[in-house]
Amino acid sequence: MHLIKKRKLLITCLILASIALSFIHSYVSTVSVPLVLILSILVLFLPAKVDQKQQPETIADENQKDNNNADFSRITQKYVNEKTASVHVSVLGSEHRKNEWHQIEKTIDDLLDNCIKIINSRMDAHTVAVFFPSKDGGYKLRRFSSRSEHINPEATIYPGVGVIGGFLKDGLKQLNLKEIVSDSITLYYYCKDAGIRSLMASPIIAGNIERGALIVDSTNTKNFSEQDHAFLSTVASILGQAVFSTYLSTEHRLEHIRLAAMSNIEKEFFHNLKLDLILDKMAEIIPFAIHCDRLTIAIKSEDSSIATILRTHGNGTEWFLNKEFSLKEKTLSSIVFSKNICISRNFSDEHYEIRYCIDEPQESKYRSFLAVPIGTDDCRGMILLESTRPDAFFESHKDLLSRIATSAALAIEKIIILEKAENMATHDGLTGLFNHRRFQQILKDEITRSIRYNDPLALVICDIDYFKKINDTYGHQFGDTVLKGVAAKLGSSIRDGIDTASRYGGEEFSLVLVKTDEKSTVETVERIRQQIAGMVFKGPAGQDVSVTMSFGIAYYRTHARHIDELIKKADKALYRAKENGRNRVEVF
What we know:
Layout: H1 2-21, H2 27-45, H3 59-85, H4 94-122, E1 127-133, E2 139-146, E3 156-157, H5 162-165, E4 175-177, E5 198-206, E6 209-218, H6 226-272, H7 275-289, E7 294-300, E8 306-314, E9 324-326, H8 332-339, E10 343-346, E11 368-375, E12 379-387, H9 395-426, H10 436-453, E13 457-464, H11 467-474, H12 476-492, E14 500-505, E15 508-514, H13 518-533, E16 537-538, E17 544-545, E18 549-555, H14 563-579, E19 585-587
Parallel strand pairs: 18-19
Antiparallel strand pairs: 1-2, 1-6, 2-3, 4-5, 5-6, 7-8, 7-12, 8-9, 10-11, 11-12, 13-15, 13-18, 14-15, 16-17
């Protein structure tokens, strides 16, 4: 511990000494400052000498270290998780990124201003100026301090133009002009002659890339010594590393919070695992992250030929919401769905490009779009962003929207897998109706509800007449066709979401009719019997085949007060219908 304290004290003294030396106007300071800083770094990284008298660590000490490290790791991980979870979706927006970079540019300006102050404190300068590269290949004035009132704050120096530009033809160079006789306007950062007679410049380099220039001038000839130029070169080098590190760390930080926000979105997708909630979240976050004038999200149906627009955002989107459209027509959406590709470009100026269907409102104000598929191997949906501005969407928008779409697609795929697994556990594989196990649970739940609310409840068990003969005559494949047809008729003939139809077993089916009195129940079942009797199936040879069904009804409370007893009574009523000639309805 004493060695560590001594080392810290030594490093502090060395750094203070380097700062003091930097203000001494001599060759000694030019050489000493870098040496002192290097010495500080060596002291920092040299291993401490181990005390010869120190006793070796015991196993208990090592275990304690491991425990401390584990505790530290847990605390660190908890802190990271909390910080990540607190990242809001708004950080994905371009406005957030713009504001963050604006703050960083202000920090860079403060850094440059402090650097200029250090230079002014070291040497007698008329103007100290910092130039950064511009988009058009020049070097634009970023920050300056000057005794002159004739500085052009919008000045840009181009290679090959003017006194300084002549030295920039082959890249930035060290420059020390001791006797300037030309007008100061030729320097291109003065708008009037300021009588500049000497000038020196050093390139700002970081990562082996030229990132700007540091220029100092004076109205005196031969004003700057070689030591001054060496100092300026050192400052330029340090400044380059500082600016580069600031930009790089900011980029990393913004990328980190972007990934944290995406991670939170993905967690929400997989936490909800309901299509409506996932679509709601997408409709909420996408306009936040990417500016657009119209957003539509469409999901493909199971038969893959039709899709529906389930979410919209923006003005004038009422027509599109819940609109079904065909994927077989030649439209923008059909291309995305069929090819499972991203498309981003301007709309045609020559004709209107149909987004979904030919009868949609054809508004010419939208100039550009970004369309991204929702899906992994197969396109299950599409996100369409439209803007009234041309070239509104960039590669960064495409990457971000693709990431959101992929995360949503993975969650949707999991929903489909879970729904299929649940469907296999609760539905009959042939007919699609509830299976016997699910029927038992439904009947139990409805009895409980009937007891609570005193609602009427009826159980119907029915059977296809002479079904064995149908199988023997026309084959089991045709028998399956009859089972599916009858099941579909039973399911469509009852109230959706209120009553339930199940395959009881073999050719037997059941209906649970709730909140229906005895007279209405008989009328409903009689109507179903007549509809099934009127069905015509095409046999293997093309012949017309008709079937009939027999029905047995039992009422809860009237005939039974327990589930097993109610099923038994309904079954007995069915057998009575069979005994009385079939194709009829009997009440126990």
